[in-house]
Fold each of these.
Amino acid sequence: MGYDIERFVGYVNEGLLCSICRDVLEDPLQAPCEHAFCTACIHGWLVHHSNCPEDRQAIDVSVLRPLYRYMKNDLNRLQLHCKNREYGCEMVCSLESLDRHERECEYSQIPCSNAGCTIQVERRNLDVHLAVCEYRSRECPNGCGYTILSAEDTQHNCVAELRTELELLRSEMICRVEEAKHEMESRLDSQRRHMVQKESILQNEIEELKSQMSRMMSDVRSLMAAERQHRQELEQAELEKREL
């Protein structure tokens, strides 16, 4: 939808009106046939049609282009009233600067910044509203440090709030201790499994060394027996030699 033509000061050229809504162009696009439309208007039209609403020539979204520069300049120079005129704003500005003004307009309706408050007030009255808003928060004047809403003033109990806070901290501490305990147990189990695995490997290595030593001892005994046999044979040969 375009800008309501009643908001404008002075004459508005017919070429600057949307061919669909007949209001002053907002975020305009132009068809090859040079008819201009608000972006929202022409997109909505093309959902159900495939032609220009003015002369019925075939068009689609791909052929739409921005407005000619000279037409865009003429559009931006138009003077119009702020949308908050009904609330008291008397500002008249160019269409080009309208968005900037309305973002900062003191008469704009804005929501209260307090969580839970659904009231909308004029920007210029926001500070006054915040001072009396039932959802405004402040720190407890008794020194417990708790943040309270004005609506909760009569129900606030420092001792109860601190007890609740203490219980929450206690529960959180218990949870953290349990988490740390589980983590340590998990680490110990992992280390225990690792040690058992290492012990098994070492035990296998020891058994292998024992087996090797057993074989070596058997070989040594065999060598010693062979040496004794060889010595006896030499002694026998020596005796035979002497006898001859």
Amino acid sequence: RLHATDITSSSFRLMWPELLSQETGYYTLEYAPTADLAGKRTKQVSGAHTSLVLSDLAPETTYEVALIPESNVHYFPPQTTRVTTLAEEISPVQVLISESGPRSFHVSWAPVLDSVVSYQILYGPLPGNSVKVLEVDGGHNSTVVEHLAPNTTYLVTVTALYRSGKEKSLSAKACTQEGE
């Protein structure tokens, strides 16, 4: 049976039993969003394959998938399945401020997602409009913000920059300790 694994917001892996071999034919794979079957895409795969990753898909979308074995030996009926991609990652969902001192604090966030290229940490005193930016690689989930004023409230915004070009932000307030 044709089925999907490794489902994300923009891709999934299709797996199917070995029906053909390299010599006996190939597979035609057709897939389209259920809501837009006219937007059908087609891929051809050698008969030696039993899996394929489909990518560049829309998030939170149900796809109709048909695997058509094109055999020169036997007739195989097409196999079909429906796969729904996951919602676009909403991130960060948590921003934590810790290890607060007079001139620095530690910012961490969760979750860390493969689809994030980098994080931008914007911070500035409240009230006020002087904002500084730190860039953090997408594989990291924390950073230290330094050179701050003592006994001051800061607004900290963590923005996730996705490979898709989308951005999602979450803010938290942080207070530095009184200086010596």
Amino acid sequence: TTKYPPSLIIYDLKTDNLLRKYVFPQDQVKEDSGFANIAVEDTDCDKTYAYAGDLGKPAIVVYSWEKNDSWRITHHYFNPDPLACDFSVKGHNFSWTDAIFGLGLSAPNADNFSTLYFHPMASYNEFSVSTEYLRNQTVADDNFDAFKLLGSRGPNAQSSVSFVDRKTGVLFYSLVNLNAVACWRTSNNKYLMKNQGRIYMNEETMVYPTDIKVDYEDNLWILSNRLPIWMYGKLDLNEVNFRVFSAPVVHAISHTACDITPRSDILEKFVNKAKNITKDIVAKVKPNSSTTTKPITVLLTLSCLVRFLAT
């Protein structure tokens, strides 16, 4: 039963005043529509855009603050993959055909357009499109190839929500079947499994990660809520069923494929290994005039190699 039509409700968080309520037009809301996630492009306040994914009737509804108007965009990449509709969470097996779900916006480019990274929930693939094409329905309809297939997360890696940290350029996303949250650095040209990092995985605490955000102080926030257990079983009220996780972004991605910090620990291990090799050589060399310079030469060579690797 639908009591209220889908709407955008915009508040001033400093005063708690309602600034605007925009009800989606009837022709943009279909019988099976369901709007679970929204991405907001707000680097220019007057030209703010909101992108709402319709997971029931695959589409993106684009809203312009400046025009106070919206339009509906469709594309084949928004559809669920029939081979990825099988889910298993905490012993509950079920089939979901959720379409476009995860939405993550990059920082704007020089022309003030962002890249929208998106994926259906029933899918293993990640896609992208420039908001240059989403801001105009005609342009989007006339440029099918503007929507790009980036690659696959691999088997059993269906994802619901996602979010891009605009400072590091890291895309965070849930892995609902694996009770995990993963990441990919958008500066990486290839969306391959080896380029994706697993930042947290737990079969008790991270059951069904359902929301991901990065705040203005560079902290990652994750919500898990055990929704499939509630739908197909029964929540145990003696257990913790809802959890909020938080960590600084740089700590969350540390020592993963998404790490952006210099790996000084690897360099230190190499230096220590080089020193040990040099000591072994020194110990074997006889202390006479013809051989005493060899360990020094070896040490200098290794030292130069370390400096080369460091740069």
Amino acid sequence: MALLSSSPSLPVSSPNYRCYPSRRLCLNPITATQVFTPHHIDKSSLTISETSEEDQLWAAACLRVRSFHEFKPSTFGIQDHKRYLAEREFEALKERIAGKRTGFNRVSCLNATLPLSQLLTLPDDDLCAQCKFSENGEDRVVVGTLDVNQCTSLPDEITGKKPEGIEGQFSRGYLSNVCVAKELHRNGLGYDLVAKSKGVAQGWGKLGELFSGITDLYVHVAVNNEPAKQLYMKSGFIYENDEPAWQARFLDRPRRLLLWIGLP
């Protein structure tokens, strides 16, 4: 189960990938070929926290590339292309967190990480090799990631309606780039990430004297991504709107649903 939502990343120019003229990352629907035997983990050593450290942001960018793209193993130069995608996402992520992207009041990268030692029994070391970083002398791996965005809308996505008026500039938030390493699905990591993101959104505090933190949180999800829809619904999100069919066709992607939850 890969968890897909809107993702403000960068365009690619390769014959092996679809590219949307006005988007910066291709989000592919989950197919049966992407189902993996889950690897059960000890969540007592799981850490979920905000980060602006570059080594963690790089690891998160690599996880997003391997989660949101399907690659043909026989493609020439595939490793170079993966690195290109990761570098573009890494730079865009740093800019969003630093407040250099127009339209985003605040962006936080939230990562779920595990010690490398717990993942050495994975049948493929691709995850550990690509998404590893060091913290306090310990090697850890980013196994889940998402962005919490304080903004009125996300590029090329249908816009939430709550709250109305000028408060929407400060009190409306969106989750994006939500993904969990495919090897670790069915461990509840998606639920843990979403739960943590609600606390982050609520805890951003007051802006001036009129507005508090995020009160209305949104997420976009493809209509054919049943695992992701179940995740969000069980996390308290409800349906608010859906993307017009013409817009999905224009952007060459599955139609999206817009889900909402009110935060206390």
